[in-house]
């Protein structure tokens, strides 16, 4: 999958994601949450360790990024930051919308969108899931790993 960033509406979030990606933070993580027809979520460093599965969804980089709510709509392919109830609690976890989720607009920091790889997004979104610890049917039955996240110039993408 290839995404473009929106630094004009979320400069802190884009800088944070790029810094984490450039350091290899996301390499070896997994998409740990898939809600069919809604979104796929990744970016938790705890997903690198299968023995930490009970804690997946709670990991982060050790810092938080102030929310940058904006007018970009949460539609299919939009990249946005996951967070807790606290608006300023995003760190490294992100999600990609599988469909329109406009109810998230101006409540979650949208910071980019998918440019290439909608087929990959669809395949991940269609992955079989089971109930997680809280009863939500979002736990992938098979590991969906992230080999690496690379930051490249836009003009290098074909």
Query: Quick one: how many beta strands?
Result: 8
Going across the biggest sheet, name each strand in turn: 1-6-4-5-3-2
Q: What oligomerization state is this entry in?
A: single chain
Question: What is the CATH class?
Answer: Mainly Beta
The 3D shape can be described as globular
Rg is: 15 Å
Number of helices: 2
User: What are the segments in which pLDDT stays under 50 over at least 5 consecutive residues?
Assistant: none
CATH fold description: Cyclophilin
Mean pLDDT: 96
Total tally of structural domains: 1
**Based on the structure given, which CATH architecture is correct?**
Beta Barrel
What percentage of residues falls in helices of 4 or more residues? 10-25%
CATH superfamily: Cyclophilin-like
Q: Report on the biggest sheet.
A: 6 strands, antiparallel
Alpha-carbon distance between the two ends: 12 Å
Element layout with pairings:
Elements: E1 2-5, H1 11-22, E2 33-35, E3 39-42, E4 78-81, E5 94-97, E6 110-116, H2 118-125, E7 129-131, E8 137-140
Antiparallel strand pairs: 1-6, 2-3, 3-5, 4-5, 4-6, 7-8
Salient structural properties:
Cyclophilin, alpha+beta, single chain, 8 strands, globular, 13% helix, 158 residues, two-stranded antiparallel sheet, six-stranded antiparallel sheet
